[in-house]
Amino acid sequence: MANQEDIFRKVISHAKEYGYVVQSSEIYDGLSAVYDYTQNGAELKKNIKEYWWKAMVQMHENIVGIDAAIFMHPTTWKASGHVDAFNDPLIDNKDSKKRYRADVLVEDYVAKIEAKIDKEVQKALKRFGESFDKAQFLTTNPRVLAYQEKAQSILKRLGRSLEAEDLEDVKNLIEELEIVCPVSGSKNWTDVKQFNLMFGTKLGASAESATDLYLRPETAQGIFVNFLNVQKSGRLKIPFGIAQIGKAFRNEIVARQFIFRMREFEQMEMQFFIKPGTQIEWYEKWKELRMKWHLSLGMGEENYRFHDHEKLAHYADAATDIEFKFPFGFKELEGIHSRTDFDLASHEKYSGKKLQYFDPEINENYVPYVVETSIGVDRMFLAVFSNSLKEEELENGTTRTVLKIPAVLAPTKAAVLPLVKKDGLPEIAHKIIDDLKWDFNVVYDEKDAVGRRYRRQDAAGTPFCITVDHQTLEDETVTIRYRDTMEQNRIALGVVNETIANEVGIRNWLKKTE
Q1: How confident is the model over 270-288, as pLDDT tens digits?
Q2: Which residues sit opposite 189 in a β-bridge?
Q3: 3-state secondary structure string, 144-178?
């Protein structure tokens, strides 16, 4: 585990050093679990959102996007179930006075069992070499099977207890597993209690007449309350989707793991409205489409897996997570849920307004069912950033730190470097910048020896370096250097723009999902 913790620490410090993420209000000692995205982070975040929006809205004729307000009428959250059911099970350690999510303590315990399975796999791989059959090993090795059975039975019991709101059994499970407080190392636990996660606020000029509001804990409800407006104004026929990117707020007591779990975060959600009875077919379809989108970024198929929910939310009849292998193990990156007609039917009941679709094919009104895809922008950012950060040993015995962000998402697409600060080379470099900046985010870099500049751009995640040298004056060619392979080629000045466009264009990356 220490190795994973070291890797994660490097991720956090690299994010700060290279202008990606810093703690909010850092000069005032920061604010717990709130972070600011600095210059490169803001660009990466914007590019992730654009990559999702193009794939989700632009590439689908039957999906449109909206941008709903953060403040909503308070009855919205009564109808959605958040007022009564949006709780986390919390437990305190009496010695350290630290508070934890009870379910996360159990899940972390299971993650340690999964780490033991990984260790067994690595040992066997060393022993058997190329003849090693991982799939067979996982299904036949007695020790691995025992670990798997233990992990599954713990998660099943946790799921059942949470579903039945049997908080006493959740505490019993923690005690039976002899889970200790990570700070005090003691097993001196309080009872498990539920805690509502919504932030309250007030709307109005005077305290007497102010309305109690909530900061939205999810963006989905903004889509549901606008379902009819969008359907009618867009003359949309079922099946169709409404997508949205926006901020949400949760009063996470145990916010941790950097930007993985924050109190203010951003979601990319799409609600797909369908005919009742077709939900399982669409649920499977969206599982496939969303996984293809993730894999199009080339971050390694082995780093993703589906994890079906043992405990379903009150509105769902099927739910799965796409989990990603973060430096702290496999965790949820995206949720795909079959939400039935819960949301629209509930808003219909609470608002007294009809939220139905008239289906001309069957000449009938009905409340549509919904399949949801929901991904955290910040988690996606962390997945991309942590997966891209590499320490590489080079042939000459030196090492380099490189941030291999998929080129389509990279904050800066190219750095333009004059070999020396004289002989007219900076002027040519500035001309190249002036041409490229219309289409790409590019930077000019003339400080230090060119080798050091390459290393700096590698660490910042820039996919290409364009070097202007004395040969450029003779034949109008430049050197293009590729971050990932360090390969260098001479290309004509006239094709620099086209060369970069081919490598970073969304079209070429998203084509992989077809």
Answers
A1: 999 999 999 999 999 999 9
A2: 93
A3: HHHHHHHHHHHHHHHHHHHHCCCHHHHHHHHHHCC
Burial state string for 17-38 with b = 16 or more CB within 10 A and e = fewer than 16: ebbbbbbbeeeeeeeebebebe
Measured CA distances, 59 to 52, 87, 243, 335 (Å): 10, 37, 12, 21
Round to whole Å and give the CA distance between 356 and 497. Answer: 50
Average pLDDT over residues 176-182: 93
Task: Give pLDDT, residue 2.
Answer: 46
Cα separation, 392 vs 8, in Å, equals 17
Residue 339's φ and ψ, nearest 5 degrees, are -90, 5
Q: Which residues pair with 266 in a beta bridge?
A: 247
- C-alpha 486/C-alpha 488 separation (Å) is 6
Superfamily of domain 40-74+206-386: Bira Bifunctional Protein; Domain 2 (3.30.930.10)
CA distance 254 to 331: 16
Measured over all CA atoms, what is the biggest interatomic distance in the chain, rounded to whole angstroms?
80
What is the model's pLDDT at position 86?
74
Residues 196-205: tens digit of each pLDDT: 788 888 888 7
- Check whether 444 has a pLDDT greater than 50: yes
Tokens at 85, concatenated? 């059911």
pLDDT in tens, 353-403: 999 999 999 999 999 999 999 999 999 999 999 999 999 888 888 899 999
The answer to whether residues 219 and 196 touch, using CB atoms and an 8 Å cutoff, is no
For residues 481 and 465, the answer to whether their CB atoms sit within 8 Å is: yes
The residues, any chain, with a CB within 8 Å of residue 411's CB and separated by 6 or more, are 39, 40, 41, 42, 43, 44, 47, 405, 441, 460, 461
Global confidence as pTM: 0.83
Residue type, 487: E
Q: What is the DSSP secondary structure assignment for residue 258, as one 8-state letter?
A: G
Q: Give the pLDDT confidence of 120-165 residue by residue, as tens digits.
A: 888 888 888 888 888 888 889 999 999 999 999 999 999 889 888 8
Predicted pLDDT at 370: 96
Q: Residue 459: which of 380, 383, 392 has the closest Cα?
A: 392
User: Ramachandran region of residue 363, left (φ > 0), alpha (ψ -120 to 50) or beta?
Assistant: left
Residue ranges of domains in the chain: 40-74+206-386, 87-196, 396-513
Nearest to 406 by CA among 483, 330, 514: 483
Amino acid identity, residue 149? E
The domain defined by 396-513 carries CATH number 3.40.50.10330: no
Task: For domain 87-196, give the fold.
Answer: Herpes Virus-1 (3.30.40)
Q: State how far the Cα of 400 lies from the Cα of 47, in Å rounded to an integer.
A: 26
Neighbours of 300 (CB within 10 A): 11
Contact in structure between 404 and 299 (CB atoms under 8 Å) = no
Task: Tell whether the model's pLDDT for residue 1 goes beyond 60.
Answer: no
